[in-house]
Amino acid sequence: MLQIKNLTLTHRKDLRTLVENFSFVLNSGDKAVVIGEEGNGKSTILKWIYDPSMVESYCQYSGEKAGDAGIMGYLAQEIPAEERALSVYEFCLKSSSFLDLTPKELGEIASQLRFPAEEFYSDQPVETLSGGEQIKLQLGRVMFARPETLLLDEPSSDLDLETLKWLENFIRDYKGIVLYISHDETLIENTANLVLHIEHPREGKPPRCGAFRLDYRTYVQRRDAGIAIQTRQARKEQDEYKKKMERYRKIQQSVEHAQNTVSRQDPSTGRLLKKKMHAVQSLGRRFEREAENMTQLPEVELAAFLRFPEEVRLPAGKVVLDLQLEELCAGEKLLAKNIRLRVMGGEKVGILGPNGSGKTTLLRRVQAELLPRRDIHAAYMSQDYAETLPLDLTPVQYLAPQGDLASETKARTFLGSIRYAREEMSHPIRELSGGQKAKLLLTKMMLDGVNVLVLDEPTRNFSPISGPNVRQAISAFGGTVISVSHDRKFLTEVCDKLFLFTASGLVPVDREGLQEEVNI
Fold first, then answer.
1. Where are the domains of the chain?
2. For the purposes of burial, counting CB atoms within 10 Å of the CB of 423, is it exposed (0-12), middle (13-18) or buried (19 or more)?
3. What is the pLDDT of residue 518?
4. 105: exposed, middle or buried (Cβ count in 10 Å: 0-12, 13-18, 19+)
5. Which of 156, 294, 371, 491 is such that its CA lies 20 to 30 A from the CA of 172?
6. Which homologous superfamily is 319-518 in?
7. 12 falls in which pLDDT band (50, 70, 90)?
């Protein structure tokens, strides 16, 4: 059992409270997901639970960790740069338990990970492994210590569909506690039996932290239903209150007018009006007390709001891309042959395939053809946001390069709509989370009136709360979308054409079959 009591985390730089008095209990077999918008402190919670010293440099904390969680294993979001250059064997040696394992024990771990046991002794550099292989290697090193509790920070990032399915089974079948962060809604729906939600409703208000022993779909349905009911009730009471106050003000104005016009020679009427005014004032105080007890609009953290301009359209008959490649290579390595991709105006094309197969290389070729064109206005979102974002600028400077007050005010308005805190608007872009950078890129495309989006894993850093809004915005976009993605909900909800990237070219994918898989 892992018990957290009254955990409070405060950012040292801007004194922003990330988590306040958060308590929860996890039992053996629990699969708990931590959700919340970018920058809400999800990763910091996992680090603090594993080792408080990991957050001391940037975060003040208080709270208690109790219970017997046994040995804990922690998987970070990314492999540190200094470890990526190591060989697989050298990487494994970083675990003090690696050499203590018997061949049988190592084989059991390898079998559980579906990773060849002999590969743990490989001289291959870690950085040359595919995304799925790197995740399995990281998990393997964590598993060498035989942990009873796993803390996984974004284990689903950059995984292809096959590896995502494996990860789902791994989490579900794990005997101990699994506490994890993921932006993949399908994975969360298929694995979590407990939801930890970190919300920052609005500036000046304390964060809200809750633990809900529900599967994710049920949690979202109940949360949305509760918000809708409370919102309707609050607005109904507000409307009724406004009508009462209008009648009250009319009565008050009528009595005041009568008092101001009554003759001094008529003291009896004056006394009656004075009593009536006392009664009116008493009624006003009663209405004030009622207002204090009215149902309030729910204080929940709103999802990021994105909407592309409705006037941005491309005619359906316009050929946006007609790509024909006999060979696609990365350096001297042949990735695929006979690539054929024809995309028309308004179409939304999704490309999927195994990690390391060459999808990003293909997308780079696509953007190189489209960005210089003058008959369309194309923009490219790379997986590496540093390729297109000026990291030393602030978000306001990036969206409002003119620097005038009107442009900066507009930029701040849009940043607020995508859930940027006031402090984040003035931070250098390099200090932002991956999700905040992704939202910034999409907002820039929206403001620039782009009509062709070339997107490499566009939703991989969006929270499960904002993900549906982002998908809806791209789905409603009147231009053309050409994307690479492993996000099953994005592929089925946004894309009207799907292709599997293979060594023999692009193969059409049954969209309905993938939809059935998502809905399982």
1. 319-518
2. middle
3. 53
4. middle
5. 491
6. P-loop containing nucleotide triphosphate hydrolases (3.40.50.300)
7. confident
